[in-house]
Design goal:
By secondary structure, the protein is α/β, with parallel strands linked by helices. The protein contains eleven helices and eight strands. Bound molecules: zinc ion.
């Protein structure tokens, strides 16, 4: 009797296993180049894939040096998801070195391009006039990224099509809501206050989509500490253009930021996440959390 019950239980476990979405061994290996793409990939793939990233939270995707362990990850991957637009200059060599046969999905495929201005830390990496790679900073573009990732996963793993479509649809509707949130938040900022001084050059797509201007400070470069004359120029610029807030995280000397704020009357904004998510405990562990964090930092700095 006891033996029969044992057998019966075994049978139930077996059946349940057969119905489970995917056992670890069945999951496809997906590698995303950096944390934001990793988040999108996890949303779309759900339990069907093991998603890992090469450049993790708080890492710099522009200045990445792959290790042999990264090459092994890529070699074992069925799909490698990249941003494209020149962001991952280190990637072609890594893929070649890995000797793998992963399908490469370019997440930014089909976005309307914006050109980099150059002349600062980001521009220096990309070169003036080359496409600005930070397309994910517009939520409408994030939708394109997610659709490309969905389609790439379906090609690589056709058996999962229904799952990928359902997961992507659910996430895309969250992005729709997020897009409305951002627009509503910007709408509440008086139009003449929708501008910040910023050393970030990663927000060109955000600016184009939502109408908050990111103006580079005159005189403040990230290469050298600004002189008294540079500071005076920036202060004058802020006063003349009546710019309510400054986001100058790249400036290493916080006293200079405080000085510029005190002399110009501009508010010091908080941290903006551009190229990477935070870790789990941080302010921006997911793309949606990152956009919400940024919009909160901007609206509180620009409120009257
Ligand atoms: Zn960047």
């Amino acid at each position: 009797m006891r033996f029969r019950r044992f057998l019966f239980c075994g049978l139930i476990v077996f059946v349940l296993n057969g119905l489970a979405p995917a056992r670890a061994a069945d999951r496809i290996a997906v590698v995303a180049s950096f944390s934001i793409l990793g988040d999108f990939a996890k949303e779309v793939a759900g339990a069907r894939a093991d998603v890992t990233t090469l450049v993790g939270p708080n890492g710099d995707v522009h200045m990445f040096t792959p290790t042999p362990a990264d090459a092994r990850k890529v070699a074992a991957a069925k799909v490698v998801i990249v941003n494209g637009l020149g962001l991952e200059g280190w990637l072609p060599r890594l893929v070649q070195a890995s000797g793998g046969h992963a399908a490469i999905v370019v997440a930014s495929g089909g976005v309307r391009l914006h050109r980099a201005d150059g002349g600062d830390s980001h521009g220096a990496h990309h070169g003036e006039g080359s496409p600005d790679p930070h397309a994910w900073q517009s939520v409408a573009n994030a939708r394109i990224y997610v659709a490309n990732i969905r389609d790439g996963l379906i090609v690589a793993d056709p058996a999962g099509e229904a799952v990928y479509r359902a997961n992507a649809a659910a996430y895309l509707s969250k992005l729709d809501a997020l897009e409305r949130e951002v627009r509503d938040a910007v709408e509440r900022i008086p139009p003449e206050r929708r501008k910040v001084i910023s050393t970030h050059t990663a927000f060109g797509y955000f600016e184009a989509a939502y109408g908050v201007a990111f103006i580079a400070p005159q005189g403040v470069s990230t290469d050298s500490e600004p002189s008294a004359r540079d500071i005076a120029m920036t202060v004058k610029q802020i006063r003349n253009a009546k710019i309510p807030a400054i986001f100058l995280e790249n400036l290493s000397d916080e006293r200079l930021i405080r000085q510029i704020a005190a002399e110009s009357g501009a508010r010091v904004g908080g941290t903006l996440y551009s190229d990477s998510l935070s870790d789990e405990k941080g302010d921006a562990p997911t793309y949606i959390a990152m956009v919400r964090h940024n919009i909160k930092a901007l609206t509180s700095a620009l409120a009257e």
